[in-house]
Amino acid sequence: MHDLLVRGGTVVTASDAFAADVAVRDGRIVAIGTGLGPARQTIEASGRLVLPGGVDTHCHVEQRSSTGLMTADDFYTATVSAACGGTTTIVPFAAQHRGQSLAAVVADYRRRAAARAVLDYAFHLIVSDPTPCVLDEELPGLVAEGHASLKVYMTYEALKLSDRQFLDVLAAARRAGALVMVHAENSDLVAWETERLAALGCTAPRFHAEARPAIAEAEATSRAIAMASHLGSALFVVHVTCRQAVDTIARARACGAEVYAETCPQYLLLTAADLDRPGFEGAKFICSPPLRSRADQEALWGALRDGTLDVLSSDHAPYRFDDPAGKRAHGADAPFSRVPSGVPGLEVRLPLAFSEGVRAGRLDLHRFVAVTATTPARIFGLYPQKGTIAVGSDADLAIWDPEVEVRIAVDRLHDAMDYTPYEGRIVRGWPVMTISRGEVVWDQGEIRAERGRGRLVPRRPRPTVAR
Amino acid sequence: MHDLLVRGGTVVTASDAFAADVAVRDGRIVAIGTGLGPARQTIEASGRLVLPGGVDTHCHVEQRSSTGLMTADDFYTATVSAACGGTTTIVPFAAQHRGQSLAAVVADYRRRAAARAVLDYAFHLIVSDPTPCVLDEELPGLVAEGHASLKVYMTYEALKLSDRQFLDVLAAARRAGALVMVHAENSDLVAWETERLAALGCTAPRFHAEARPAIAEAEATSRAIAMASHLGSALFVVHVTCRQAVDTIARARACGAEVYAETCPQYLLLTAADLDRPGFEGAKFICSPPLRSRADQEALWGALRDGTLDVLSSDHAPYRFDDPAGKRAHGADAPFSRVPSGVPGLEVRLPLAFSEGVRAGRLDLHRFVAVTATTPARIFGLYPQKGTIAVGSDADLAIWDPEVEVRIAVDRLHDAMDYTPYEGRIVRGWPVMTISRGEVVWDQGEIRAERGRGRLVPRRPRPTVAR
Amino acid sequence: MHDLLVRGGTVVTASDAFAADVAVRDGRIVAIGTGLGPARQTIEASGRLVLPGGVDTHCHVEQRSSTGLMTADDFYTATVSAACGGTTTIVPFAAQHRGQSLAAVVADYRRRAAARAVLDYAFHLIVSDPTPCVLDEELPGLVAEGHASLKVYMTYEALKLSDRQFLDVLAAARRAGALVMVHAENSDLVAWETERLAALGCTAPRFHAEARPAIAEAEATSRAIAMASHLGSALFVVHVTCRQAVDTIARARACGAEVYAETCPQYLLLTAADLDRPGFEGAKFICSPPLRSRADQEALWGALRDGTLDVLSSDHAPYRFDDPAGKRAHGADAPFSRVPSGVPGLEVRLPLAFSEGVRAGRLDLHRFVAVTATTPARIFGLYPQKGTIAVGSDADLAIWDPEVEVRIAVDRLHDAMDYTPYEGRIVRGWPVMTISRGEVVWDQGEIRAERGRGRLVPRRPRPTVAR
Amino acid sequence: MHDLLVRGGTVVTASDAFAADVAVRDGRIVAIGTGLGPARQTIEASGRLVLPGGVDTHCHVEQRSSTGLMTADDFYTATVSAACGGTTTIVPFAAQHRGQSLAAVVADYRRRAAARAVLDYAFHLIVSDPTPCVLDEELPGLVAEGHASLKVYMTYEALKLSDRQFLDVLAAARRAGALVMVHAENSDLVAWETERLAALGCTAPRFHAEARPAIAEAEATSRAIAMASHLGSALFVVHVTCRQAVDTIARARACGAEVYAETCPQYLLLTAADLDRPGFEGAKFICSPPLRSRADQEALWGALRDGTLDVLSSDHAPYRFDDPAGKRAHGADAPFSRVPSGVPGLEVRLPLAFSEGVRAGRLDLHRFVAVTATTPARIFGLYPQKGTIAVGSDADLAIWDPEVEVRIAVDRLHDAMDYTPYEGRIVRGWPVMTISRGEVVWDQGEIRAERGRGRLVPRRPRPTVAR
Fold first, then answer.
1. What ipTM did this prediction achieve?
2. Which CA distances in Å does C106 have to B440, C58, C65, C109, D458?
3. Chains in touch with C (≥3 Cβ pairs < 8 A)
4. pTM for the predicted model, two decimal places
């Protein structure tokens, strides 16, 4: 007797699609086939697509910035929202501020997630203070515990590392078996442009894009790859937004560099023109790197298709619009450089990519599954437990209605936000049910998840290499 | 009650790998899982890899050349040999000679295959005489019947098409829904070099490579792609052998051309130096395009990995060495240009690629499955019936012992040949059992296949497009 | 006592520009400087530019086609027209038709040119019938006499060579010391498209561009370079018209191929849209390869600047519009494929390039001199006798008024044509005087040249290389 | 009556070569020709090449480092040495240390040069402290005075600028009309590697190359170009040493960046293997960026030929070997990182490039003149006064014996050094006479120059552009 049977759907993986039932016992997939034995619970999925639950490896949840600002979503709202959009695993950040013990930071985030998350999760470590103590004493233990990735910044005063620190981190990560992720923008160039614009009185949201030009991203991407290549280290470039950065990554790979790269729906679907909405409205679209041009969008879609980009994540960074703890933290007249940076996207990531990618003919269904679930799970050591539909894998499934039309509206979403940058946009295709370890957590509009049911997923370290 | 249960192996697809049983009924996979119900026959596969049976989309079987020379293998020996090496589907050629009706040619090949094949098969049509009758009257019907691919030659006097004929074929194929495959070498350049060498008395086998330089292949590849791109047609480039052709293909794709490409084990593992063996021995290594350099091998492995090359086929073209109907057709002193061109490889294709690819760390196991089974099945319209392990697919399986070491020797192989170019080479990993539509055809050294059990697999045409 | 002193102008060469007088004796430059001694004739050039007379290495003069059609210009009108536009040397063709002796052809052209030319000249040999007799017996002697270049066609039924013949020509030219020029378009592709269009009734002039697409040129360019590279031969690609061909050439050079390339003003200044003028008017713009797009124009300007293109010639091919021996040879309703191909341009080549290149900021003055005079003279073995202003060089000078504005009109030009494709276009800068071997041949609107004064300039063969 | 006549030589410029006399009056060339009038002094040059005197735009003369170390050569020995090698103009540096007034620095260098230089000179300004005072108040005046170029460092603790400072300098230079030169190495990467090597005890000279890998140079080159491109500023990259940096520059140019680049004989002729000589001997070859590989040499020669590299300068940086004020400043056991960096080369630059370039067939004679004289003069605003042989230009000439064989030896050179990295190397071709403004300063082995005769050459600013 199985615990659960998902019956009659079209099962889709990164390489295959076929009609079959999926049987689940003890939270894991035990069989995929026809005529599978009886189950305590049966879900009819005929006419539906049965996809691996999404794996979102870039999101900011219950994260406090160095200035004390907290994201709008905590581990409960974030995971509920993710579940409602077909995602079953998130990998947010455990963010070190300078002077903090990395281990203490991780313990704090673990404690909070354990109390509230409704989906499984893991943590990337943000390293802003790569002291010998952090790198040599704390990091190896944390990686061994399963926190096998870390992120560094090349921009933001409170977070950025010098090239030398970046080299230290790359070397330490390699010894410990962690993958390094990088936010690549040239800090000096951004600061220089921001000051130049400020001196001209150009502080409205629309100048955000001008202050962080594509070349700042492409330059830092090239530099980060140069350093990683020099050490023979792998590198994961987050939120690639422009053709120049895509070209840089493709070139580096052709030369043998082990570089992975990601983009996000906002860079595929919005442009810098969105920053130019009246009044402070443009602040809703401030994220970094900034939104770019239509030509960049085309380059990103092409790169998702041809494999230059591996992952489509949300970079969910939720700051409410009409909130003194959100976009207005420094007032509604704040210059763009003081507006908290980020857009929400956990819940709409998959529907947007399905509608604008698969339905619009830009991505095939297997590639959609690959970039939103299988590949991120693989790269970050969650696979095969997460990211696919295979015997032995966790029964993390999203059952999609590929035809339903949904008008996106903030009051239909489940995060803690008061706006969505996609308000009014119509998408075709949405998950009608989300299943996590065999438990239905989102069912036709109803949230069934229990606070705190999510579990930490320890991740396998990468093979360690001395140098 | 299942017909067959393959129990306890590690099932591998182009994207996944997991421990599971595979259950078969009526020749199809009905379930993949643990604890699947009982079966009439159970095969223990613990410690084994359970892979999709190989799909070999380039092989010459019971094919008569324009000069009347017959390949050594008929449909029986060829399919038996293929089965012993883990392959379950072959797509040989139905080769038109000038003046022949294409439909009659197909009927003849079908008849012969039906009588002898032990594995399932389909046919590519070789078009050497693209008259309006052939293209407009015969081709559409043949494609509709499931012969959805055809091959043309840019070289060989008896086969080659002019560019204009090539355009006619591309356009007709597009209308009919067939994919065009091309053997790309510049005929004039080869003829010119061959004559030049002959005038210098350079006719030994080792001059074969000099007479057909890489640039002749790269040029013709570029030209074929230009013509296909001009018409907006897809193109499949067979047996890519050199870095220059790889670069040409990569560049065309980056510009949006729909080009697929293939290489073969001989180009990955042998070099032009093999042509320089003493006496006539080098003739064993004469194939066209010729073997190249170590640098070209590296380029090909890289292109298999990064996706520039989609398919690894055998180009099995069996002419016996010590045989007046084989390599010695024109005597043991024949100039290289009169030696029948081709090397055998149906049986060793998968073991060589597994050993030198997967075991040697050049290909991961999923990519091995993709290039040897899933992708050729997809490109040529056999998928999902063939090429993967999925519910509903034919139960075509190869059960591998990944550790067994085998020394390749002609007398251990099952084709009709008297030599193998890999004599003495040790490979690690070999299928211990091959299953076709749920029937064991090769079992631990014993052939169990019944002559004529193989069936023609009709293939879906490509979407047709008018111009 | 000098024969001539050009006083007070700004002397410009491919590398320098300075105020100086130029002194001439016996037709050669003997001194460049200030305060040079007295002369029998003094020309005031203050406020003028003193440039090397133009060298036009691509023009069709008094040339009869295989169908008997004669160009409108004979050696008199052509050279007068050239002189009026600042050109002092032309290299037209001595065109072999199939079956003709190359030596006899050359003798015929020499005789006719000697009788009429007012400027110095040389001949490229057009080889349409590369028999062993032509290549082995005639060619070496002709090259030794100074006819050190030849041209072949990859298109046009009456002229085109097969790839094999092309290889024969390349090899023979290399042995003899001649440079091979190629008109590169894929003949089959053009024929196929022409037929396709004809079948659709698309025969108006505007379909000329569609019938000869850029890819036909790029393909043939790539093929020609492949063959030349294979033999280690140099190659000169005439009339490059599109970005794809430019890219192909640049890539070949980066790989070490010795490739030279040319474009013409019509490809820089006109587009395929000009073919779409009402009625038969578009026929005025039929030339092959055809006019392309604005984007191609930009690519060509860029390539002229950066050195990918070496030469700017006219490809003067004069067929009168309103003339049964011209564009209307097959009537005013003739399909584009039967309209004689070519546009006139000998006289306007330099003024157009000066105005649209130098004055418009697209070419610096030194690059203008290089591509219109010095480099073609160098490549074709006329340098240093022709193509520069240097002591010992022929006193072939063009004295330019860089400021004068001229409206181009057919009745102000001096060729035998009844139209110019540039009618009404205003250019800035025009030669006020042209000097050939120290003799003024064009002076402020007056032609002073004596019929037959031009001389054949024998050219140095290239170093010969055996293979 | 001319002051000087150089009679019967072969005059060579960047585009032409011809037999002619050169007549000089008041230090300037007044005529080039045959049969020029009499002169007070006549120099026979038959059988000789008459070239423009070399222009060396990268050399360190009488320059004190931030730690107080003085180069071995003062303005007298440096200019004498340069003259003996055929150079007639040098552009050393006026080097600001942090805290210094740039104007005061320039005044100091001018005073010292005026007292001792025997050749004409100009100064590049080294800016290490780009305060608003320096950039906004001092720089415009200095540029207006003719100091129209400045150099910045991306490495060396005492000199390096942050990216932000670099942007400040680029913007200020653009406003003022100065060209920015950059020493591009990633400072952090070098420091990180240096420390890593030190920790392993790897401090011998041969580790110098490992501590400053090619990727550090390529990365910084890419970054510098990104910043300049962002501002639309021109950039001059000094001492390019490796294929990766060459590729970066070529790519940037193809995208429209105005980038100029230089290499030096040491990078063309020596390799990192030279650093591995026994004992401290390797210190003679320590320069930064370091010597590279043979493959890099080939890339540099190719780039000099094809125009990717514009200039060949010496980067003469003379520190004596056996001298406590030289390479041994920190003792003979000093780690490589404390050895003063630089090699001498003012005198041998042209003979090495002539012998290994022109005579060895790697550069044609015109390209030799271009990269060693004409182009640097053009780029840095010295042309047409310097860098060519043209009427009106300064009579700065080098008369070369192209056949003479010279064995390079430190005691035959005229600088203040006790070693040359080229000791024992035989070159073919050397200037027998050097003429500066019509005065013979080096004559067949005898120095005739008078201390202090050299003059400052003010340079034209570049067009200034606001942003």
1. 0.95
2. 77, 17, 15, 5, 58
3. B, D
4. 0.96
